[in-house]
């Protein structure tokens, strides 16, 4: 990821964190190279040498966002019950969508709201990223079903899709100004639909 010859004079992780915020606030399409390099505190040659083109930078930003800002999703999968997995995920998601130190909403939703010049490549990449999260949740719920923690006849794939639909809907509402309490109220309703083994 580095330039040959002279060492970099900037912190690549800090620059990437600043790029995340630009993509998050403006979306992929509207984030200009000037916006990005200005926020990152580097010039275009340094950006290209370290991160590649705009799309490569965006992919790195989404990967870092998934590792850091969405660590709660992986932690939720470790809960002992299906209900616990879903509640932990949706509650932590509502908190993450309304962090005071981050833009409201979710990078993977906000980053891909408008496209025009990339033939859908970035939209497909973001959809694949969200699908991977949904599949991980479905795998965990399938295990819960097999262990008798969900009632017979429960469709783990449909349940995972439902949970992700709530999460993504909350992301859109957070970006539009819904506060944390409003998102948690939505989670309260959503949890009533989670089937219990009893």
UniProtKB/TrEMBL annotation:
PANTHER family: HTH-TYPE TRANSCRIPTIONAL REGULATOR YJDC, TRANSCRIPTIONAL REGULATORY PROTEIN. Keywords: DNA-binding, Transcription, Transcription regulation. GO terms for molecular function: DNA binding. It comes from Paractinoplanes abujensis. Residues 32-51 bind DNA. This is AcrR family transcriptional regulator. InterPro entries: Homeodomain-like_sf (IPR009057), HTH_TetR (IPR001647), Tet_transcr_reg_TetR-rel_C_sf (IPR036271), TetR_C (IPR011075). It comes from the Bacteria. Residues 9-69 form the HTH tetR-type domain.
């Amino acid at each position: 990821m580095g330039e040959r010859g002279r060492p970099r004079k900037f912190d690549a992780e800090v620059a990437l964190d600043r790029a995340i915020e630009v993509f998050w606030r403006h979306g992929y399409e509207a984030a200009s190279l000037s916006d990005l390099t200005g926020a990152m505190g580097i010039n275009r040659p340094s950006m290209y040498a370290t991160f590649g083109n705009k799309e490569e930078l965006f992919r790195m930003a989404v990967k870092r966002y998934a590792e850091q800002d969405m660590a709660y999703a992986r932690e939720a999968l470790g809960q002992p019950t299906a209900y616990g997995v879903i509640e932990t995920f949706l509650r932590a998601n509502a908190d993450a969508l309304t962090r005071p130190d981050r833009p409201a909403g979710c990078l993977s939703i906000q980053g891909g709201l408008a496209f025009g010049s990339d033939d859908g490549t970035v939209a497909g990449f973001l959809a694949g990223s969200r699908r991977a999260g949904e599949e991980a949740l479905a795998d965990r719920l399938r295990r819960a079903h097999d262990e008798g923690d969900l009632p017979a006849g429960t469709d783990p794939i449909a349940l995972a899709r439902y949970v992700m639909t709530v999460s993504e809907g909350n992301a859109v509402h957070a970006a539009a100004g819904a506060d944390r309490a409003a998102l948690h109220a939505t989670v309260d309703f959503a949890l009533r639909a989670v089937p219990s083994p009893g």
